[in-house]
Amino acid sequence: MNALAPTDGLGPWRQFLCRACGLIYDEGQGDPDSGLPPGTRFADIPEDWACPICGVTKADFEPYERRAKSAPMPVSPAPQRRPGVVIVGGGVSGWSVAEAIRAGDASLPITLVTACDGGRYHKPELSVALGRGLSPEALRRETGAAAAARLGLRLLADTVAVGLSPERHALRTTRGTLPYTHLVLAHGARPALPAGLDPALCWRVNDLAAWSGLHSELARGARTVAVIGAGMVGCELAEDLARAGHTATLVGAEALPLPELLPEQAGRRLLAGLEGLGIRYRGNSLVSGLSRQPDGTVALTLADGTRFAAATVIAATGLATPSRLVRSAGLAFDRGIVVDPATLRTSGPDIFALGDCISLGGQPCRFIEPVARQAATIAGAILGRDHLGYAHAVPVVRLKTRSSPIALHGTPVAGAPWHVVEDSAQRLAMEQRQNGQVTAWLAA
Amino acid sequence: MPSALALRPAEDRIAAAPDRPDWTDAAVRAATEAIADGPLSAAAAEIDRGAYPLDILGRLGSAGALGVHLDRHGARIGLSIAAMQAASRACGATGFLMWCHDVCGLYLEQSDNPALSGAVLDAHAAGRTFGGTALSNPMKAFAGIEPILLRACRVPGGYRVSGMLPWVSHIGPGQYCGAIAGVVGAGDTISHEIMFLLACDQAELRPCPHFSGMEGTSTWGVRVDDLFVGHDAIIADPARPFISRIRGAFILLQCGMGLGVTEGSLDAMLAVEESLGHVNQFLEDRPDTVAAELAELRARVMRLAETPYDGSTDYLIDVLDARAQTSELALRASQSALLHQGARGYLMSAAPQRRIREAHFVAIVTPAIKHLRWEMARLSRETLPQSEGGRA
């Protein structure tokens, strides 16, 4: 995207960083999807504008200065003498903890262990990046090595955490055993694939590496793509594929998409929006198997025996937190690593966890908005600083389907009745009530 | 084929060995410890220099220490590991020979080939005949680390096998080992692999160069040239499903060696505690530290030994992790033992310098630490489509 040069006499275009999710608002590019044309100064953005990725408001943005792309600063690659903090996970959660610790302590040794290359990117962008014509290079904000040098930490990239001895404060990895004073688990969740789906025949988009593989397959021209699973990620990907010029079929288990989250009226609006983009929705369908056809396409067999083919198949069938590492170490696990909701301490001594891998009261919470606050809480505890603690609030759920954007507030209860507040051609507003109090509301 | 026996609670196991009622857990443990503390301790230095202790292995076999891991004797993998640990506490080379022998027995039993799982296995399990394993190369080949060295061609009634394996232990004239060859099909590609029992008398055994220790393991280069392998000698065809079924037990059993070398090193540290404790207190990896880690690791190994045929990836990673940790701990403990003993441990007749070489062996024998980490990394990766695969 080429931005026009500023003519308003206010100097070069500036950029603003969303503190919650890391999205960068560039004045030169604006946010056309939200009605902000290129060249909209940040000061001129209406106060009710929301981050297009995570939905926080304008007040949560701060000026962003792009870091000069310089050679990495020399950082000692030698093993550190003092054990220090070990962080497992190179996604936004892991890096957020590293940033939060460094903000309070310049010298505490930090080692970040990650199974990927450690490159920093903004994960929510993965479900809107095809339609925006972004490349893997454009999505990667900073290489792992550059981030490690900037933060003065030791990065063990392409390294898997395989074993944990809580009493001895030792983490075993595929590059050796690391002693630690504090351990932070931020390894996220992994796509949960139903048994009938061959992992070699369907993509899952949960990290930049997987997205990059999908991107290179799709880059060779418009294709037929089947998206299995009509949850948030499935709906967003289907729309993104359609916007990128592909022929998308969305396969959902129920009559309408997002049935566990949305009442029927909202589901209909969502479906109408998706169909308006040319997406075919196959409802009430469960995929029981995938097979490679002689022509190179993949055949999807549905539970009722019908079959259809697609050149590319994506499974968006949910996430599950890997449990082997923590279970074999004897830590409490209940659909995620069990943490104290105020301190984010696990049941193991000096072990914290945050982000997609945790569960609070038996519920995983896989949204990006709470991560920065979770990281600050953990950093405060590790550094022995007073900290108010983490107060969990259910984040606003925003469906990044521009065809019919939906925002969901509060704590919706599946199966409980929804009441229509407004149902016009322009807007649908509904709410759930309990004992006369509004407990959840949505706008579509 | 999951082994039902392996999932049975411990108290039922003794009844599972009706033909050897004398091989109770307590009896096997006591007899092994008596052999380890007596003749094996006395012979350890000599074995390290080259004496092949077949007599001691025979005694261990008749005591049950080489057979109790088999389904027919209760699938007591944990007891087998404990026996191997007891022997390795005295002599790492003998612990390694026990492992070679144990897994060969596993191949024979799990083959379901009546020609191998009857009298041949009975003699083997009781230590009346001896044989080892030549799976270092194929295990690495299956993990994508190196190419397979033995090649087989299909012929009427079986296969003909040729090739050379650089070093195979616990073999000799009249002995045997489990081996794997890649079957060469059309276009000189390998269609699949076969596993078979290789009789040493049909192969050429070539002396190996000198190793820095553990010379009494009867280790040879094995060369076969157009060797006929008939159905009676086939352990598995194809070999890969068989190997993936026994791989957990194969690797887990090795932990007995590292645990024993660590325990022997601990003995050496404690032996000088009274006289040298006032200066040894300044060393890392003190006896209490090593003992605590050994206890934790051993408990984990014993838990894993309850379900040796659990086919899940998570279980296999747990086994690989425990095996890697036994290597790391044996290295640290043996190093510390020598530092604890000082010059007296550096004497060529002293146990600690031998322990260091044994620990190095534990860490480099297949699967070596680096292989274990490679495999754990591989098993942890998500399978994704190849983006070149489809068409627009």
TrEMBL record, chain A:
<feature type="domain" description="Rubredoxin-like">
    <location>
        <begin position="13"/>
        <end position="64"/>
    </location>
</feature>
<dbReference type="InterPro" id="IPR024935">
    <property type="entry name" value="Rubredoxin_dom"/>
</dbReference>
<keyword id="KW-0813">Transport</keyword>
<dbReference type="InterPro" id="IPR018527">
    <property type="entry name" value="Rubredoxin_Fe_BS"/>
</dbReference>
<dbReference type="GO" id="GO:0005506">
    <property type="term" value="F:iron ion binding"/>
</dbReference>
<keyword id="KW-0408">Iron</keyword>
<dbReference type="InterPro" id="IPR050260">
    <property type="entry name" value="FAD-bd_OxRdtase"/>
</dbReference>
<dbReference type="GO" id="GO:0016491">
    <property type="term" value="F:oxidoreductase activity"/>
</dbReference>
<dbReference type="InterPro" id="IPR023753">
    <property type="entry name" value="FAD/NAD-binding_dom"/>
</dbReference>
<dbReference type="InterPro" id="IPR036188">
    <property type="entry name" value="FAD/NAD-bd_sf"/>
</dbReference>
<keyword id="KW-0249">Electron transport</keyword>
<dbReference type="InterPro" id="IPR024934">
    <property type="entry name" value="Rubredoxin-like_dom"/>
</dbReference>
<dbReference type="Pfam" id="PF07992">
    <property type="entry name" value="Pyr_redox_2"/>
</dbReference>
<comment type="similarity">
    <text>Belongs to the rubredoxin family.</text>
</comment>
<comment type="pathway">
    <text>Hydrocarbon metabolism; alkane degradation.</text>
</comment>
<protein>
    <submittedName>
        <fullName>Nitric oxide reductase FlRd-NAD(+) reductase</fullName>
        <ecNumber>1.18.1.-</ecNumber>
    </submittedName>
</protein>
<dbReference type="Pfam" id="PF00301">
    <property type="entry name" value="Rubredoxin"/>
</dbReference>
<comment type="function">
    <text>Involved in the hydrocarbon hydroxylating system, which transfers electrons from NADH to rubredoxin reductase and then through rubredoxin to alkane 1 monooxygenase.</text>
</comment>
<comment type="similarity">
    <text>Belongs to the FAD-dependent oxidoreductase family.</text>
</comment>
<keyword id="KW-0285">Flavoprotein</keyword>
<keyword id="KW-0274">FAD</keyword>
<keyword id="KW-0479">Metal-binding</keyword>
UniProtKB/TrEMBL annotation, chain B:
<dbReference type="InterPro" id="IPR037069">
    <property type="entry name" value="AcylCoA_DH/ox_N_sf"/>
</dbReference>
<protein>
    <recommendedName>
        <fullName>Acyl-CoA dehydrogenase</fullName>
    </recommendedName>
</protein>
<dbReference type="GO" id="GO:0050660">
    <property type="term" value="F:flavin adenine dinucleotide binding"/>
</dbReference>
<dbReference type="GO" id="GO:0003995">
    <property type="term" value="F:acyl-CoA dehydrogenase activity"/>
</dbReference>
<dbReference type="InterPro" id="IPR009100">
    <property type="entry name" value="AcylCoA_DH/oxidase_NM_dom_sf"/>
</dbReference>
<dbReference type="InterPro" id="IPR046373">
    <property type="entry name" value="Acyl-CoA_Oxase/DH_mid-dom_sf"/>
</dbReference>
<dbReference type="InterPro" id="IPR036250">
    <property type="entry name" value="AcylCo_DH-like_C"/>
</dbReference>
